[in-house]
Amino acid sequence: MHDTDHTGPVAEERPAKPSGSAAGPGDREAPPAIAVSRLSKTYDSGFQALRGIDLEVSRGEIFGLLGPNGAGKTTLISIICGLVNATSGRVRVDGYDNVADYRAVRSRVGLVPQELATESFETVWDTVRFSRGLFGRPPDAAHLEKVLRDLALWEKRDSKIMSLSGGMKRRLLIAKALAHEPRILFLDEPTAGVDVDLRHDMWEVVRVLRESGVTVVLTTHYIEEAEEMADRVGVINNGELVVVEEKAELMRKLGGKRLTLHLREPLAEIPPGLEHRRLELGADGFELTYTYDADGREEGVAELLTELGEAGIHFADLHTEQRSLEDIFVSLVREGR
């Protein structure tokens, strides 16, 4: 992307050691890709966009940041990338302080913004070459060709940006962000406004990037996007991180399962003796739903079916379903209000 920060385009600087850190070649563990500590942001209007955010993102993971509009997602990644100043707190990227060592940080991150802001009269090739030069990187036609091929843009390299479809422009934003070979890529609503097929193609591009060692942080309104791609998920609401958890563990803890029984005869109410079960009766009396924890005992289902049989309740069909990440997200946001 074109650099709009007041510092202007800069060449990469390589301090001997990240500021304020004892990290060095002989250390046992490399620093996390991103480390955010007690980060807050209050705008001049008095609006507090972020409230004491603590977050670490590991190297090589795909981290999904979910939240409703205005929750603070874009503000958080803009501060990490050095485009917005924090009110308080600290950010380290690859061990470098994003204020004291901002040049080292800027050279290590790529940002794909929500807005499709591009120079319409430039060609695809010229704009990615220019983006690489903004960060002081030497010309590397082979790298740029690989980026464009990976994003299915190579055949459009001589086309003017104004002639591209919306989906291709979205891919071009990713190409620009990758032109200087960042190790951490931020995708702010990367598939907004693109069709389903292209969305799945772009998911595959992100997986390939992760396999090459790039750390990916994505914000998204598409819950299926995080469910499909992310290793870990963070939910932000009203400027606060409500939860940060490995996706599989979050689904295990909060997912829950539902067993729906389609009854042969309608019920007017749940029979006496079954009140201790978490049962819900459908409005028409023909559906009985049992909710139980995802990590609960499966034997509980068998016990329930036995009790229903003893109560003279018979069913024609049944099915189970796992609570989705979208269900969990909605419940967490509601609880945080």
UniProtKB/TrEMBL annotation:
Q: Which organism is it from?
A: Thiohalorhabdus denitrificans
Q: Which UniProt keywords apply?
A: ATP-binding, Nucleotide-binding, Transport
UniProt xrefs under InterPro entries: AAA+_ATPase, ABC_transporter-like_ATP-bd, ABC_transporter-like_CS, ABC_transporter_ATP-binding, P-loop_NTPase
Which region ranges are annotated with the description Disordered? 1-31
**What GO molecular-function term can you cite, just one?**
ATP hydrolysis activity
* Keyword NAD in record: no
Q: According to its UniProt record, what is one Pfam family this protein matches?
A: ABC_tran
What is the protein's name according to its record?
A: ABC-2 type transport system ATP-binding protein
> Bias regions of kind Basic and acidic residues — which residues?
1-16
In terms of domain of life, where is this protein from? Answer: Bacteria
Q: Does the keyword Repeat apply?
A: no
Domain ABC transporter per the UniProt entry, residue ranges: 34-263
